[in-house]
Amino acid sequence: MTVRPATAADVTAIADLELANLGDDAWSEGLVREGVTGNLPTISYLVAEVDAPGGRAVVGHATASVVADIAELQRIAVDPAHRRTGLASLLLDAVIGAAREGGADRLLLEVREDNAGALAFYAARGFVEVDRRRRYYRDGATAVVMRRSLGRGCGASDHGR
Fold first, then answer.
1. pLDDT tens, residue by residue, 47-89
2. Is beta strand 106-112 parallel, antiparallel or unpaired with respect to 55-67?
3. All residues at 6 or more sequence positions from 79 whose CB lies less than 8 Å from its CB, including other chains
């Protein structure tokens, strides 16, 4: 398993992961292409790939933005056949590293309040709930806003370093 920056060759795989994981809330292939090719300057995409017959296969991706001292994890998606293999953790670690390098002192994200697995995943990695956004998703579901300190400012503590 490796995590690397996404390239234009990864756009279709990322868009397919979006649709498979996020359904109606998936980003279009066009929007993914804009982010991957650098037309959205604060956005970065990472992909996780594994060995597969015929070469390497993209089986996960993460999308994040860094603006000044705030980073936002916008997406982590892993192919269902590759879940619980550590890919989401590798992607999250890579996002945290990139956010720190970009000067962010905190990482924010939103997760559906009915996604118990994701809430537990992020809580186990130092994220805490800071707010809720009612009717955030297309189907009217509420988003839980979570934050993790990245080690300086914004309520930093030893566990965030």
1. 999 988 888 899 999 999 999 899 999 999 999 888 888 999 9
2. unpaired
3. 17, 20, 59, 60
> What is the domain extent for residue 28?
2-160
For tokens 């994040």, what's the residue?
Answer: 64
Please give the Cα distance from 13 to 148 (Å, whole number): 29
Question: What's the pTM?
Answer: 0.86
Buried b (16+ CB within 10 A) or exposed e, 8-31: eebbebbbbbbbebeeeebbeeee
Domain count along the chain: 1
Tell me which DSSP letter residue 153 carries. S
Query: DSSP for 64-75?
Result: EEEETTEEEEEE
CATH of the domain at 140: 3.40.630.30
Helix 29-36 to helix 11-22 angle, to the nearest 10 degrees? 130
Q: Using the CB atoms, write b or e for 79-108: b if 16+ within 10 Å.
A: beebeebebbebbbebbbebbbebebbbbb
